[in-house]
Amino acid sequence: MNDTQINIGLGEHKLPLQGAENPSTEMQGTSPGSFALRATIGGSTTFSSPDTPGMPAPSSKTAHDFNPTPNANPVTQLEYARLGTITTEMKRVAQREPHLTAEQVRDEVATGRMIIPANRVHLAMGLDPMAIGRASLTKVNANMGASPVSSGIEEELEKLHWSVKWGADTVMDLSTGGDLNACRTAILRESTVPIGTVPIYSMIMDKKIEDLTPGMIFDELENQAKQGVDYFTIHAGVLHEHIPYIKDRLIGIVSRGGSLLAKWMIHHNKQNPMYDCFDDICDVMREYDVSFSLGDGLRPGGLADATDEAQIRELEVLGELTERAWAKGVQVMVEGPGHVPFDQIEYNMKLQRSLCHGAPFYVLGPLVTDMFPGYDHITSCIGATAAAYHGASMLCYVTPKEHLGLPKKDDVKQGCVAYKIAAHSADIALGIPGARDSDDELTKARAALNWQKHFDLSFDPDFARAMHDEDLDVDTDFCAMCGHDWCSVRISKEIQEFASGKDENYAWDKPKVSAALTVEQKEILEQRGVLTPEEVHKLATKVKGKMAITTEGKASCHSDAVDSETAKALQES
Ligand code: SF4
After folding, report:
1. pLDDT for 518-544, tens place per residue?
2. Distant-in-sequence, close-in-space partners of 499: CB < 8 Å, separation ≥ 6
3. How close are the terminal C-alpha atoms of the chain, in Å?
């Protein structure tokens, strides 16, 4: 038993309360609180789940160990923090996360367990600083970006604003088509949230990966750093010696950056240039305070390949690169999988915590089953909730279009909502002070059958109102789910001993006819219909003819192993 463990007895049953704070500021309700560990902000664990037996222990090292002499001419948030300085950005983070003081933010940044991804250029353009780390609330990233077959700058800007409206804390521009520079400039100009990119995409636009040189790498990093990009995904952890581990996988390499660099290494029979040039890459990034998102180029693309030799060997290298970046004064977070069976998620989170000395873990999902394409925002947000409880600091959303196509506006919303659910659920479970306050307020409105308050307090009020009014346009003492006689909440209100809805702030007098649905609410109801096969076919044929054809007459997205005629035939069929 942990010496902070507190057992509360309910008759014969002892609740395993480990000392984490109750996530309700006012200790409302009858629930005794979180089963997580007591938070040790400033220690090797901050908000943390209890370790299942066999989990790797936290590292005893921090960013301080890899730079014993702080840089007297600080540029990055990490360098300022290691000198003991509280920056304006740290103060802003503490303001946005009231459970933390500015001193705690500084101390967490100094240890490398928290990052503030804030390029100095983007700060000057209106970036609102935020933090990623286990001491702060769990964050959500939304991916967007034009592809060679779909979307343009206007559509991407719309997706940017849409994803921020639905709760994205950072946005990654993963464009691989159109004018990448113009699109990135427009996004940075309009974004108040940090923007991340995968710069290798721009390095090889209109070129073959085999032609990539160190000079091209530095030119593009400099270009994007000057534009104001806040964090770069750099796939420097996938090494030449890892490639043999891939051959027995069911689905090889699924990271674009990882597969491109593997192709480069095989072609040249040389080490990954991102690894070889890593210290110089740090120098470029330090100048603008661009943070690393160390890419997991060998992440599993299916459950059968999870936690395998390739993935773990790469993670060990990511630990080494974390130390090297810290020695150069650069902030680091580390990327993680992917597709992971539910039972392996805790181990994956705690191994990263150990190998990367607590540097924030930024995970994609993970999906906990592979057989629900079209619903992967759900399969992955189940894994994301577990990941956030056990160690991830930021969750990269997955939309219903994952594996199927470029997300459209509504897919972006569905992905954001799913991941806000995952992040918020984990924050409550971890006992982050105040994390449950909004839930408790909504519960009180629900108990009082105060429908308008219920909707106003919900994450998506229009959606909730539309759902309610689909069957009943009166706000009264029941809804269409059970009806008057069977409404347990109404019956509970009538039982004087424990009358629900007792909070006077939520009491309301009499049934009300609700206002007519707004245009948005009507649209929500209209979208509930399922598309007919004819409509699906009509949508599919809209993109016909938009596929880029190379001079050889082969679709640019097509495998080199397929000849041009077969590729064209497939495109036209
Ligand atoms: S009718 Fe049923 S679902 Fe609706 S408020 Fe009452 S108990 Fe809840």
Report:
1. 888 888 888 776 666 666 666 555 444
2. 492, 493
3. 64
The domain of 512 spans 437-572
DSSP-assigned beta bridge partners for residue 81:
none
Mutate to test the pocket of ligand 1, among 486, 489, 492, 494 (most ligand atoms within 8 A of CB): 489
- Taking the CA atoms of the chain, what radius of gyration do you get in angstroms? 25
Cα of 478 vs centre of ligand 1, distance in Å, is 5
Nearest atom of ligand 1 to the alpha carbon of 446 = 5
Residue 129 lies inside a defined structural domain of this protein? yes
Which atom in ligand 1 lies closest to the alpha carbon of residue 449? 5
Residue nearest to atom 7 of ligand 1 (CA): 487
Report CA-CA distances (Å) from 476 to 472, 482, 489, 507.
9, 13, 12, 12
On whether both 455 and 383 belong to a single domain, the answer is no
Written as six digits, the tokens of 167 are 């709760």
| pTM metric for this prediction | 0.91
Report d(CA 145, CA 150) in Å as an integer: 9
Is residue 285 domain-shared with residue 415, that is, in the same domain? yes
Residue 24 in any domain: the answer is no
**Are residue 473 and residue 421 in the same domain, yes or no?**
no
- Is residue 320 one of the residues assigned to a domain? yes
- Out of 482, 484, 490, mutate this one to test ligand 1's pocket (max ligand atoms within 8 Å of CB): namely 482
Same domain, 278 and 369: yes
User: Which residues line ligand 1 at a C-beta cut-off of 6 Å?
Assistant: 478-479, 481-482, 487-490
Task: Tell me the mean pLDDT in the region 78-103.
Answer: 97
Q: For residue 490, how far is its CA from the centre of ligand 1 (angstroms)? A: 8
